Amino acid sequence: MAIDEGGLARRLWFKFRDDSVFSLYTPFFVGLASATLHSETTFRHFISQDLHFLKAFVLAYELAEDCADDEDDKNGLRDLRKRAVGRLQMHDTFVREWGFEFPNEDISKDIATTKYTDFLLATASGKIEGERSVLDKIATPFEKTKVAAYTLAALAPCMRLYAFISTEIQGIINPDQDSTHIYKSWIENYSSQVFEEIALQNEDMLDKLSVSLTGEELEIIEKLYHQAMKLQVDFIAAQPISDQQSVVPLSRVHDFSKRHLMILCDFDLACTAFDSAAILAEIAIITAPKADMDGSDQTQLARMPSADLRSTWDVLSTQYTEQFEQCVESIVASERGLIKTNY
Questions:
Q1: What is the pTM of this model?
Q2: Tens of pLDDT along 168-190?
Q3: N or C end of the chain: smaller count of CB under 10 Å?
Q4: Which of 122, 98, 125, 105 lies closest to 38, judged by CA?
C-alpha cells in the first residue's frame, strides 16, 4: 500500500508520526508503562490536567458543530461532543478508583496544558495563528464549515496519539504484571476498541469536512495538525516526575521493518552549526610544541610549520565535513524510500 492511500487524516498521521516517537522516550511514558510513577504526585497531576483537556474538547466540538453547514456533519460533531462529555464523567470514576481527591476550587493549568487548550479553542473560534480571523473572511454559511475542519485538525492528532501511546504500553507490559499494574484501567481505556473508534471517528470527520477545501486551506489543515501533534508531545514530555529518577531507554525491542529510530549525539558538535574539526584544528595549531624543551623527540606533526599544519587540518576538516554530509544524505535517502502501511 502506498503512503498516499487513505484519507487526509491518515496521511497526516504518517507524515508527522515521527514526532509521536519522542513521546515513547520520555520519563513519563517509561514510568507509566512500568507502573513506577508516583501516584500521589506525577500521575495525580497528569489526570488533573486531563480534566482541562476534556473540557476544552467539549467546547471545541460545540463550536465546530455551530460552524458545520450539513446536518449529518452537525450530528457527527454532536456525537463526538457527547462522547467527550461521557469521558469527562468517566474521569471521576477513575479518580475515585485511584483514591485521589482534587480540591473543590478550579485546578490550575500548567504551561503545556495551557498552550494546547488555548491553541485548540482559538482554532475553534476561527483564529488561526499568522492569519486574520477566518470568521471575518466568511461570506456564506457553507464557507463557515472550514472552521469546523480546522477544529478537527487540532483535535484528531490528540486522539490518535493517546491511542498510539496506550497501545504501545499494552504491547510491552509483562503478562504477569498485567493484573497488578496500578494504571491498568487508564491503559485499557485508551487502548480499547471503543477509544480506537473515537479516534477513527475524529479522523473520518476531518476527512469529510476537508473534501471541499482549496489547496491553500488544506495547507492550513496540515499546519494545524502538525502544531497540535507537537503540542501534545510537548505536554507528555513536560509532565513533572518530581524527585523520581528514571532511566529512559535508547532502544527497545522493535520491528525495524516498521519503525526506525535515529539517535543523534552532540558529543563533538557534529550535529550543530559549527564543524568541530575546524575548532580542533585551531586548538592543535595554537598548542603545538614550539621547541624541544625537554630533549625528547617531537612528532613529525609537531615539527611541521604552522602553515603546513593548518593546511593539513583544512584538508582533514573538509574531508570530515564531506563524509558527514554524505552519511546524513544516505540516511535521509533511505528514510525517504520507506513505505509505511500501518498506524
A1: 0.69
A2: 888 888 766 667 788 888 888 89
A3: N
A4: 98
